[in-house]
Amino acid sequence: MNEPIDTGTTVLMVGNPNVGKSALFNRLTGANAVVSNYPGTTVDYTEGTLIEAHRTCTIIDVPGTYSLTPRDAAEEVAVRLLGEYPGAVVLLVLDATRIERGLYLALEVIERGVPCIIALNMTDAAHDKHISVDAAEMERVLGIPVIETTAISGEGVKQLAGMIRNAKAADISAISGRLNGDGAAEEMVALRSGCSGCGVCGR
Amino acid sequence: MARSSLSTLYVGLLGLATLASGLADILVWAGAGPGVTFGILEIAGGDFFRWGWGGAVMVFGGLFMLSGLTHSGSLQQSAKVLLGAIMVGIIAGTDLFALFCESVPAGEGAPEFFNTASGFLGGIAPPYSPAILLLPCILGILYLIGRGEPDDA
Amino acid sequence: MQRLRGVRPVKLTTNERWDLVDAIAERTVTVGTYRQTIGDILGELTVKPATGIPVAVAVLYAFWSIFGSFAGTLVTDGFMVRLFDDHWLPWLQAAWPGPDSLLYYLAVGDPLAETCFEAFGMLTSGLFVAIGVVLPAVLIFYLMMTLLEDSGYLPRLAVLMDTVLHRIGLHGYAIIPAILGLGCNVPAVTATRILETRKQRFMMMTLLAIFIPCGAQLGVMRDVIPDLVGPVMLYLICGFGIFGFVLDRIIPGENPEILIDVPPYHWPAWENVARKLWTRTKGFLKEAVPFVLFGVLLVNLLYLAGVIGALADLFEPLFVTWFGVPKETVGPLIAAFLRKDLAVAQLSTIAMTPYQMITSVVLISIYFPCVATFVMMLREGWKQMLAAVGVLFAVVFVYGGLIHAAGILMGVA
Fold this sequence. Notes:
The structure holds three protein chains of three kinds. Chain B is mainly alpha-helical. Chain B contains five helices and two strands, in the order αββαααα. Chain B has a two-stranded antiparallel ribbon. Chain C has one domain. The N terminus of chain C is likely disordered. The interface between A and C is large, with 60 and 54 residues.
């Protein structure tokens, strides 16, 4: 094996507290970020390296935040990191059982015009609670890749790693447009044009 | 759970027994007496932590079980009974763990590190605290609750 | 990674954003009928005060009982005391050359000592305290701590404690750094960041450094003064309350309410528990063991140089009349700056009445945080650190006197 190529990409993992960012981070990087079942475990950021398909990128596990208007010291760290890495890909981690507040934060990040990808985490817990989230539909509406994961058991993590390079910046007005039902077809083409044909998305 | 009067009776008696042994724990400790041994049952008293504090936990456990008796059958009430059972389980579990920890090393002054097999068995033999004696009955409660809960669809 | 053409940033208002969220959620989420399970109700019962407080009492009981059985009875008394006192100490006393030499004094200590606590050499007391007493305590503490964290009980405890902690200007979440601090103050200082205002963070950090004994110290206390742990903890908890109340009144700043997000209970993932336990224990071994050995070395050197004797004479009036403890406790107080566990171990060899022992152990706990905690506090801001040290001296002085006074009133001092 040759040395993996460093793509120089930085991925920021952003999401609400206690949605499993650190667990997902450990899965992606093999690192040892402390994971607990309460919001606010990560108060400082942790950095790790993801090696996928012979390319490496830096992943930063950002402390959980509810919005980009910081209220406590941990949230300040999150906002500061987004400012410090303007070119970074943002991996938005959403809790499938509490999707709304996650989407709120996601939209705030999307509004900044940065490339994003969504990990719809805790799908196992959502299944237990009889909540189902249509990831494909969410992907179509938002115009950014949405991957279902269960960080605690590792499901979907490999697929997520493969899709990080397909992260897309989305346009809010286009999202509103798609929600109202127009221009969908045209946007679809644009979304998948960057697909490297890995086959995992099944389309 | 506890749909039949028989299981209500079972939980009720167990709750009373737990409550009584919790109160007995506290009384023996407060009286600072020499401790009570009755067959395989022993309340040593003396130590505030085990008998004062632990006795209080038993009292709460008994009260939870009794308070879950009315309107039996609702999930809310079963949860109270279960919580009471868990409290007794905590005391019994820590008691058993303490017995185990005392019996594994050899006794004071012995040159060896590990206890002999007979010494170990002697260490974990009765008499036991009331919580340990109630433990098998507690498992019965778990069975009743497990049976009462319909399978998740 | 291919670069994309930038999309123009836009800024929505909060309402517009929520409208969009609702529209997306409506499109993508379907919620089936959900029946409450017994687990959900148990979850609720552990937060309601009437049932939650007894449950907290039971959980604390289990925590302390298992801690004592494993660290005290099984590992330390069962095996380590035997290993160190019956095998390691006699062997070292015989094998190390020259009982009168300086090196012997530093490494082995007292050639006639019968236990590793009394010898006070680097390789005797130092190793025994670090490996024999503190390591098992830290290991079992972190195991149970991790189980509480991963099961989701901690945030419920935070909800329960919210009312009480609000009285002293903190909120329920302050319980998390407090409990972490019972393991080690170092991660606890970082964890204060989950509190919202500067005031709350400062208060929590100060109270943490002063009144929360760390796992190492608890382990040593459990071993050398088992009967006095209760009173010592009681004094510390009272101190936490009293000085929290006072600090809340004198420090300007806000104590905002926060909404505590309670996650569902779930079974801890084995892999995660093992990983966390390993990371934390490794952290302890790397930090604590060198500090304990170095602490013994430093204290011995200071004794030899006569520094401790001089300090003891200097502080004698304060210690004897104001705190009511023997002047020999000055030595342990200096060691306490490096490691508090070490200091408690050292105290146990000084002849004192039980009440003097309680007073001096409480003083050691509230006196300077250990070096490692100190460095962490410095990292959070040197101004805050200096202020915390100022508070600390005031507290040691006032509270030490108070405890002495309480002892005089009860007729035991």
